[in-house]
Amino acid sequence: MHPPSAEGHVNATDVFVSCSFGKQAVTKMSTKDKQKVYAQWSETYEQDVLDNDYVAWPICAEKIFAVMSNMASEENISRPFKLVDVGCGTGYLGTLVSDRLKSTDISAFLVGVDFSSEMLEKLATRSVMTS
Ligand SMILES: C[S@@+](CC[C@H](N)C(=O)[O-])C[C@H]1O[C@@H](n2cnc3c(N)ncnc32)[C@H](O)[C@@H]1O
């Protein structure tokens, strides 16, 4: 996986550790530089992640689904569910969640938020989530 670096000193592992677990590397960069990294990475981000068998996507989708299933049994929860994916990137996770809900009677409105307009352009090609 080779995400670009705004200043040539951030590698893929740094980006992933930082974004997934909120630690170091990218968090030390300025917001503008982070945006540059994600703008440049947006083109290959999803395929890079898929090529590297990133397990967090299916795990997260399954966990989100489990929470929604539990909540669905509570009568005082308004429907459809409203989910906000902060730092949604290309929206791949939203696609997995949406697919998981298809065989159920649970409906959800998914909104993606991201500071990279380039990532949001990729998201716009999907019909599962609005931004
Ligand atoms: C590693 S990607 C993960 C994308 C998506 N959540 C996924 O699982 O594929 C991190 C995303 O968070 C976005 N991001 C990082 N910092 C952000 C911030 N401060 N505000 C909004 N979006 C941010 C990036 O643009 C990028 O799309």
Describe this structure in words.
Strand 1 (81-86), helix 5 (92-102) and strand 2 (108-113) form a beta-alpha-beta unit. The chain contains six helices and two strands; from the N terminus they run H-H-H-H-E-H-E-H. 24% of the residues are buried. Helix 4 crosses helix 5 (92-102). With 131 residues, the chain is mainly α. It has a two-stranded parallel sheet. Bound molecules: S-adenosylmethionine (SAM). Residues 19, 34, 38, 87-89, 92-93, 114-116, 119 line the site of S-adenosylmethionine (SAM).
In short:
With 131 residues, this protein is mainly alpha-helical. It has six helices and two strands.
Can you count the beta strands? 2
Distance between the termini: 27 Å
**Which molecules other than protein and nucleic acid are bound?**
S-adenosylmethionine
Instruction: Specify the structural class.
Output: mainly alpha
For the CA atoms, what is the radius of gyration? Answer: 16 Å
Within CATH, the superfamily of the largest domain carries the name Vaccinia Virus protein VP39
Strand order of the largest sheet: 1-2
The biggest sheet, with number of strands, parallel, antiparallel or mixed sense and barrel status, is: 2 strands, parallel
**Count of distinct structural domains:** 2
Query: How many helices?
Result: 6
Instruction: Just name the CATH architecture of the largest domain.
Output: 3-Layer(aba) Sandwich
CATH topology-level fold name of the largest domain: Rossmann fold
